Amino acid sequence: MSRHSRRTRGVTLVELVLAITIIAVALGGTLMAVNATTRHSADPMIGQQALAIAESYLEEVLLKPYIDPDLDPISGAVCPSAEASRDLYDNVCDYAGLDDAGAIDQNGNTVAGLAGYRIRVGVDTGANLGGFSGSAQVLRIDVRVSHPASVDLTLSGYRTRG
After folding, report:
1. Is the pLDDT higher at 54 or at 107?
2. Are residues 138 and 62 in the same domain?
3. Both 57 and 108 in a single domain?
4. What is the reported pTM?
5. pLDDT tens digits for 110-160?
């Protein structure tokens, strides 16, 4: 046999061991990344649900009138005492201090699958927004949604008198 044909027959033992080592290291790193991703795959879903809950509550509050419709719009107090139950809320300030354990719709029905969330609503009558300030002009609404899986989200919006 010639020298040339002997060189091209296959791989040496050293080359084979080196190839196996490189593949094992690459595969180990990939599996660790997949494992970490799998362990944390529920966290984004909980965060997205918290955001959807906060948006829903904030929209509900912002769609209510600035002033209680039961009062005189000119001389009426901006934030009179709240109504007896949420289905009777008829202005932004009625939501101040709302604290729900689990997502609850505006009719008082619990939303299935969202019992692990806590929703709190705060209304700030001394808010400042550009040229508007104080209780006579603007209200700041903060909706805070938390979940035991380390989710704590606050969404804020403003309602101006107009």
Report:
1. 54
2. yes
3. yes
4. 0.69
5. 888 898 999 999 998 877 777 665 556 788 999 999 998 878 999 999 988
Residues 10 and 72 in one domain: no
Q: Is the dihedral of CA 33, 39, 44, 45 positive or negative?
A: positive
Sign of CA dihedral 126, 117, 115, 60: positive
Q: CB 101: neighbour CB atoms within 10 A?
A: 11
If asked whether residues 26 and 105 sit together in one domain, one would say no
Taking the C-alpha atoms of residue 66 and residue 1, their distance in angstroms, rounded to an integer, is 97
Same domain, 61 and 137: yes
Residue indicated by tokens 């709240």: 82
Q: How far is CA 79 from CA 93, 122, 136, in A?
A: 5, 12, 10
In whole angstroms, give the CA distance from residue 71 to residue 51.
34
Residue 24 sits in the same domain as residue 96 = no
Query: How far, in Å, CA of 145 to CA of 153, rounded?
Result: 5
Domain that residue 118 falls in = 44-160
